[in-house]
Amino acid sequence: MSDKIEHKGTITEITNNKIVVRIISSSMCSSCHARGVCGSLDSKEKNIEVKTTNNSKYRIGDEVTVCLEQRMGYKAVLIGFFLPFIVLFLTAFLCNKFIFPTNEVLTALSSLLAVAIYYFIIYRLRNKIDKEFHFQIK
Fold first, then answer.
1. Largest CA distance in the chain
2. Which of 34, 70, 91, 92 is least enclosed, having the fewest CB within 10 Å?
């Protein structure tokens, strides 16, 4: 198994210290020949910022491959999906057991509020988190 996650894309913008690459992110269904039958058209365009010091060899419109270490992909899944699930589950369990044992609506609302607070904290720490994720052009 490769230790890098790679996506092909097109350069859309070049500045002094970064290059913006547009990739098309698609699910496994979008490459299926029968996707039109089941109605799955799950593909999205995403812009990836790649920090670079040598952008003179790149031009707008060039096809490039953007890569990220696989462990960073796992870290992104952990931060974006797994930890919020744990926050939701633990909050629901604790609220149902100790704080609102007879009111399931308040338990559910408390759990959703805890996840909203978690994502707000992640939003506030976005610059610090962004420094840990380094995309490269291959």
1. 65
2. 34
> Using one digit for the tens of pLDDT, what is the confidence trace for 23-68?
887 665 555 655 554 544 566 788 888 888 777 788 999 999 999 8
Q: Where are the alpha helices (DSSP H) in the chain?
A: 35-38, 70-77, 83-94, 104-124, 126-130
Element (H, E) at 44: strand 43-51
- Name the strands in the sheet holding 4-14, side by side, starting at the edge strand that comes first in the sequence: 43-51, 18-26, 4-14, 63-69, 136-137
Q: Tell me: pLDDT of 69 over 80.
A: yes
Among 12, 6, 20, 10, which Cα is nearest to 66's? 6
Among 88, 86, 79, CA closest to 126: 79
Higher pLDDT, 41 or 7: 7
Residues 6+ apart with CB under 8 A from 39: none
CA 64, CA 49: separation in Å to the nearest integer? Answer: 13
